[in-house]
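Form 7-S
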Amino acid sequence: MKNILFIGVILLLILPGCMHKSAPRLIWSDEFNYTGTPDTTKWNYDLGGHGWGNNELQYYTKDSQNVRVENGSLVIEARKDSFENKAYTSSRIISKHKGDWLYGRIEVRAKLPKGKGTWPAIWMLSTDWKYGDWPASGEIDIMEHVGYDPGVIHGTIHTEAYNHVKQTQKEGKITVAGAQDDFHIYAIEWRKDKMDFFVDDKLYHSVDRDPKDDYKGWPFDQKFHLLMNIAVGGNWGGKEGVDESIWPQQMIVDYVRVYE
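Output:
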C-alpha cells in the first residue's frame, strides 16, 4: 500500500511538468485582425524586378494593390500591369529584423493562387548570412507550389552541399487536392539536427543532419526569417509557360504563428 501511495505522489509531481513541456509556447504571430497596411512592427518588403536569380517576370512592390490586410487576412496579389519594364507586379513580404528565430515551429495558414505561371512560396532565409551568399547560408522552403502542377506541395532545404543548382536539394512532396481552393496549414518543426515538414499537421518529409556535415550541409544553426510571396514565371514557375488570362491571382494568409 505504501508503495502504491509513493508511486502516486511521484506521478503527481512528474505529470504536470511533462504536460507543461509538451505545450508549445507562442512567441510571435500575426493574426491579421486589422485592415490596411501589414503591421510595420512585424513586416518589411523585398522590392524590385531584377529576376531574383530565377528569371522571374514580376516587379515586387509594397503598394496596396499587391499587398494588404482585409477581411482578417493578408492578401498578396500578383497582377498583369506593366511596371518598370516588367509585365507583372506582385509582393514579397519579409519578417527580417522584426521576426528572426533559431529553432521552433513555424506555421502559416494559407490559400494558394492558381494557374500556369503562378509560383507562391512560404519560406525562410538566414538573417545574418554568416556562411556567405546563397546557398551557403541556407534556405528553408516551408511551402512551394507551381501552378502548372496543381496541388503538389514541396518542402525543401537548400545548402551549399544540397541545392537545386546541383540537383542535390533535400525535398519532399505531398499532394493537397484543395490547396488552391481552401486554406491549409503549412508548417515546419526545426530542431538542432532535424527539420520536419507538415501540411495540416500531417508529417510528409523529414531531414536529419548527417553527423559528417559541417555548415556546408547544415547551416541551420543561425537565425532565419520568414518570406511570403507570389513569383510569376521564372525558371521553375514558368517552365510550362504563363497563362496571361488568369490575372490577378492571390495568396491569402489567415495567420502566421511561431512557437518556441
